[in-house]
Amino acid sequence: MISDVKTVLTRNLWKENPVIRQILGICSALAVTNLAINSLVMGIGLMFVTALSSFTISLLRSYIPKRIRMIVQTLIIASYVIIVDIFLKANLPEISKALGPYIGLIITNCIIMGRAEAFAQKNPPVISFFDGLFAGVGYTVILLGIALVREILGFGTIFGIALPFIKFTPWTIMVMPPSGFFMIAIFIWISSAIMNRRLNKQKVRK
Amino acid sequence: MKKGYIYTIIFMFLIAFVFSAILATTNALSKDKIENNEALLEKVAILTAMNIKFTTDEIIKLSENIVRGNNSDFIYYQLEYGTVIEKYAIYFEGAGLWGTITGYIGISGDLTTMLGIDFTYQNETPGLGGRIEEQWYKNQFTNLLISNFPIEYGEGIDAITGATSTSNAVIKMINETISSKVSRVGGVQ
Known about the structure:
The complex is a heterodimer. Chain A has one domain. Chain A has ten helices and two strands. Chain A has helices spanning 2-15, 26-32, 36-59, 69-91, 93-99, 101-104, 110-120, 125-155, 172-175, 177-205, and strands at residues 157-158, 161-162. Chain A has a two-stranded antiparallel sheet. The two termini of chain A are 30 Å apart. Chain B is an alpha+beta fold. Chain B contains four helices and six strands. The longest helix of chain B is centred in the N-terminal third of the chain and has 45 residues, at 5-49. Chain B is extended. The N and C termini of chain B lie far apart (75 Å). The interface between A and B is medium-sized, with 35 and 32 residues.
């Protein structure tokens, strides 16, 4: 069980990271990464939804008729997203106000459906829960990485707090949508380079 | 395992029923809380627009002196002590870049000064247009003489970089509200 969780963890965080390896969830990754705090809340929301929907879908997996499984998955995912939305509105109105439309957009994040189809459909509930959770973590880590670069260069702040000592003219382009594309591409480039080098070394050994 | 049509239909019906029930319950449980939050945000916005400094504990007490103005055309509130009206807050709404923006504009009791602005609802891009919620932006619209309207960006008032459409929408809403509504508050019809 523990080793299973570990495999799921390394797979989702690195080998098959949803954003930089599978290129999923790009839409929201481009949109919310100009501020670190938005990325973090979005990531936490996604972790919650992916983990619980994977768990639920896995619980029901032998009862769900194959031909309507996608409708059922969407229904389950949408329900959890609405719960997150209501929870934020009731308990954290400030954050709910700041994130506005993005919470609803968690529904359209392909990572959730991807995990449901690729993993929860065929595996028991507990490990599916962890798979969903770590897919969310993998997404959040990359988003935070991109957001930190963009926020520091674009606003000169980290989590809204101004950088001490360093003064420079903020790069407006880093706040605008295009830089999201540049940053994601750079992250994918770096990760692929490291991945390829490792694969080559393994081949040489053999 | 192959499943028949009847099973499929019953399954879909059941699962839709169960999840709708869960959502309805969650919604019913948090409805009051959400309404309270929204009412509170409304009060905070009115007070902020009137440029009144307050702490969280004082909101309820301060709001006691705020009453809805009697004009059927548009919504405004007045801060009154006895018969003296000190300040007005005029409700406004208009189109932003992505959706409606609503809020309040504060006006002094003698109708000569715009006291401030606060937003109650906006759907602008977080980090770009969403920055209209930031204090520095709203502070630019405090204590402006009505005689200087319409205002535009430039000296003393900055637009938000990367959010030109939202910035323009906001200033347009302010100018329209000031020009069309200020003269009609305070029962002067």
